[in-house]
Amino acid sequence: MIKGTLTYTPGQPLRRTPTKTRGGARNVYLVPQAASMLRARAEHFQVDTTSDSPVFGSPQHPDRLRDPNNLNRSIRNIFNRHGVTWGRSHIGRKYVVNHLLGHGVPLPEIARVVGWSDVLTVSKYADTTGAVSASTRAAMEAAPSAR
Q1: What is the DSSP letter of 1?
Q2: Measured distance CA(46)–CA(44) in Å, rounded
Q3: Which residues contact 39 (CB under 8 A, 6 or more apart)?
């Protein structure tokens, strides 16, 4: 379950604050392989999964919040080690959007899955190679915002 976002204020500890939009707080569906990997990780680090512990806590204290900048740096390093110099933390979100678009999932459902309250945001992440046609994208962008 996504419950909030991490906020850092200089001189203060990290804290979890409510999500920016009403679509941000949500349950996240994980494919069985991902769920299994996360369970194994929690067991390895002895993290209580029934608590409010973060999925990716700090390396020294897996049950504590991890600075988002450090996590993003770790993700970039993993991508770089595998020769993917353009890989960033949100690349997974873009992949999910395009995968679901390619399978005909309606835009409002995709927006709910990735935590956006506005379906127009889906079109910004859509691959320009054909997942959404240019005319469809133009029509979506011309529509009034749902906010």
Answers
A1: -
A2: 6
A3: 49
pLDDT tens for each residue of 46-95:
888 777 778 878 878 888 888 888 888 988 999 899 988 888 887 888 88
Residue linked to tokens 């020769």: 83
- The interaxial angle of helices 107-114 and 91-102, nearest 10 deg, is 160
For the segment 10-59, what is each residue's pLDDT rounded down to a tens digit? 888 888 888 887 777 788 878 888 889 888 988 888 888 777 778 878 87
Measured CA to CA, the distance from residue 109 to residue 114 in angstroms comes to 9
Q: What's the token pair of residue 12? A: 């203060």
Burial of 110 (0-12, 13-18, 19+ CB in 10 A): buried
Contact in structure between 16 and 4 (CB atoms under 8 Å): yes
